[in-house]
Amino acid sequence: MPRSDRILMGPGPCNPYPEVVEAMIRPMLGHLDPEFVALLDETCDRLRQVFRTTNPLTLPLSGTGSAGMEAAFVNVVRPGDVAVVGVNGVFGERMAEVASRAGAEVVRVEADWGEPIDPERLLAAHPSPAVIAVVHAETSTGVRNDVESLGAGKGDALLLVDCVTSLAGIPVEVDGWGIDIAYSGTQKCLGVPPGLAPITVSERARERLVERPQSWYLDLNLLGRYTGSATGPRTYHHTAPISMVFALHAGLGAVLGEGLEDSWHRHAECGRLLQEGLHARGLRLFAKAGHRLPELTTVWVPDGIDEAKARRCLLERHGIEIGGGLGAFAGKVWRIGLMGHTARPRNVALFLAALDELLDT
Amino acid sequence: MPRSDRILMGPGPCNPYPEVVEAMIRPMLGHLDPEFVALLDETCDRLRQVFRTTNPLTLPLSGTGSAGMEAAFVNVVRPGDVAVVGVNGVFGERMAEVASRAGAEVVRVEADWGEPIDPERLLAAHPSPAVIAVVHAETSTGVRNDVESLGAGKGDALLLVDCVTSLAGIPVEVDGWGIDIAYSGTQKCLGVPPGLAPITVSERARERLVERPQSWYLDLNLLGRYTGSATGPRTYHHTAPISMVFALHAGLGAVLGEGLEDSWHRHAECGRLLQEGLHARGLRLFAKAGHRLPELTTVWVPDGIDEAKARRCLLERHGIEIGGGLGAFAGKVWRIGLMGHTARPRNVALFLAALDELLDT
Questions:
Q1: Which of B178, B243, B193 is closest to A27 using CA atoms?
Q2: Per residue in A308-318, pLDDT tens?
Q3: Considering the domain boundaries, does residue A327 fall inside one?
Q4: Which of residues 71-100 of B touch A (CB under 8 A)?
Q5: Does B233 contact chain A (CB < 8 Å)?
């Protein structure tokens, strides 16, 4: 029966906000209870504020961020449609795979891990794609891909953006940047346990939704009728994960109570403090300068350090979790998250102190 | 901010077990933390006990019961496969729809709502189906469909059973009855909030899994590598809903601590008390005698009662939620659940007392 009290500085989940923990154990309600329906509506309103959108079709999907990715593709891709997908890490790879399983002809635009993808290459990759898709914040590399310029140049394509690790951590402007479909996860900068995938769909994309997508569970036409964002009466689809919606509602309340821009600033400050601290100790950052995420820092493991042993030591001595590298960078890179409630200067101070212990021994 | 303390006697969710509520707010762990991985393994072991199976591929899917349904079909159905589907309520209809979206040629075997499906008709519906699928406990009608005899007669077909409302409420014998794929939901007789879908897959079915199903999120090949039930090393797939897994682990602990058969007996006793009480008051039960679920009782609304007003009165005066009828029986039938922690004689006594108030006024 685990009771260990971790400081979660990996690539997610983060430590949830205290308000969120409290909300998880509110007395259970039915999914059609008037009190729950009102709370769900308010949750969708709060999601619109955090996504910076007025999209009516904005709701929490009953799955994790990867369910958001799948929903994004299966609801707009028709067999043979071209999907241009940016690939510079694990989650770009996943997008390409999910798009392909949805029946798309995938055109990959690659960049080295640690490098951002040039938006001009995404825009020029195909003359008439149905979808242009990119990961905003690559959790596998700590790189921020440029999104803002894609909206202006997308033409007739839908712009589909993975905001799992960016939402509430760095600026995301769904309406301002012309994003058609954005999805996220709850366990990153929203400070909520994993389990839901917020998603928002522009009116332009809603007009192109596949009428009967291959997934019934993630069918946005049907889901929109339950959350009440669509026209017409509210219709039962599936039983919403009540406690998780309570948690998300509270996490969004924490973010908006602080102020969304203040949340961005706090993540930015913590990331800066960590990255400066690592640099001051002679460690080399992995992600390209100018495209480093504050909420997820990647750093080369210093020479002479057994990285797995070091992570185990952090976990066992201090209860600090950090992440290892993925793919070709397993054993070579650490991924250090400062997301949601974990994004506090005290956690940066603690981590740097623990790192000093490691480097001294 | 809802704080209303409901007695949840609808078709689910039920009130969670106290142990479950406590478990929800255990300190968050990472999805690769050794303590979490051990707890996940133990959760899968407990699921095997509750499903009565030794199937290695047994795990909680990161979605609600309907995600379990979708996973069951998309992982075994190949384009053009025949799926024989029993349809005598909303969830049988949903199965037919999900099977069709997975590419199956669906052969429907129907029975009237309130009646069970004759297993012989399911077995005789097609000479060589890939799948025979049925809902064990129809939540829309309160009917139990026979499953036991399907296993013996299934031939080369895979037997796929929806156990959302049956698991831990009435006997389910995955190995004993020859079920190849069974899935459930957490918010019914397991006494856990909604959000996960336990699923179990026989070795026979595992050999026939689609190599690259249309859903990446619900791909059982990939999921089995994370939960460690498959051969080979444990591989990250997606971030598990940590708090919900804590909750499921605790709910299964409550069920197994009581004893699975004692849980069946408690549900049976509560259902009997309720159905006798309704009969004694002159109300007519909806589901066919001999096939009535104890955990979900359907009853015709008495003449002269405004059913929506009556349900509102129960909710507002006593905080009791019951469900209305679905489809053609909306406004005509009530659905009264006694599931999980809600399945207590005191809740039956309370409901019958509240019903007496309603009938007197």
A1: B193
A2: 999 999 999 99
A3: yes
A4: 94, 97-98
A5: no
